[in-house]
Amino acid sequence: MVLAQNPLMPTPVPGLCACGCGEATALATKTNNSRGWVQGQPRRFINGHHAKVSRGTLVQQLECKISFDDDGCWRWTGATSFGYGVHKRRRAHRTVYETLTGNNAGEHLHHLCGNTRCVNPDHLQPMAVADHRQTHTSQITQCKHGHDLTDENVTRTTLGHRQCRKCRREYARRAYARKKL
Fold it and tell me: Which residues are paired to 90 by β-bridges?
């Protein structure tokens, strides 16, 4: 299902207020992800004008916060938290997926495109928590210090996390040297 143009929300023109009043907006002086501001780019609304926009249906509310990119991603332009879009205290990709497909998303949704702000249901795959964690863990091939995470160089912690043997050995040496002093 493709979102139709929202009849209640005029197509926003960069630099003009998205409420439809036609007044010029100020440039954002700093980046503020929770408000959707990017430093040096025009804000979407003049202060207080966002309240003038009719809230409309859920699909209309979601659509006005989505930018359709050339690569097929539907980029969330609304508020974000930890790199993921947020709509009414829920992850935006989950809300869009459940609204457009009618399916319960399950425990986790995996972004096949790798873009955490993408809300395109075709780029999302429902997964169990363990499978999702395994998918992301297997993508990490080096530790933060650049050592390869091969079977010979990895040990498991008591909590089951992978740990680089070389880094663990170096940490133990430094701890022993500090203790010796």
Answer: 87
User: In terms of DSSP H, where are the helices of the chain?
Assistant: 58-63, 92-101, 129-139, 165-180
Distance of CA 63 to the CA centre of its chain: 16
Which positions ≥6 away from 125 have C-beta within 8 Å?
109, 110, 112
Tokens of 177: 């040297």
Query: For 108-123, how does the pLDDT look when each residue is reduced to its tens digit (9 = 90+)?
Result: 888 888 888 999 999 9
- Phi/psi at 170 (nearest 5 deg)? -65, -40
Domains in the chain: boundaries? 140-181
Summarised one tens digit per residue, pLDDT across range 150-178 is: 888 888 888 877 889 999 999 999 999 98
At 155 the three-state DSSP class reads strand
Read off the pTM. Answer: 0.53
Comparing CA positions, the residue from 82, 94, 99, 88 lying closest to residue 119 is: 94
Reading the block at residue 96, the tokens are 């869009």
Structure tokens at 134: 């395994």
Give 73's DSSP letter. -
Minimum mean pLDDT range among 13-17, 88-92, 177-181: 13-17
DSSP one-letter code for 165? H
Which structure tokens are listed for 168?
């663990």
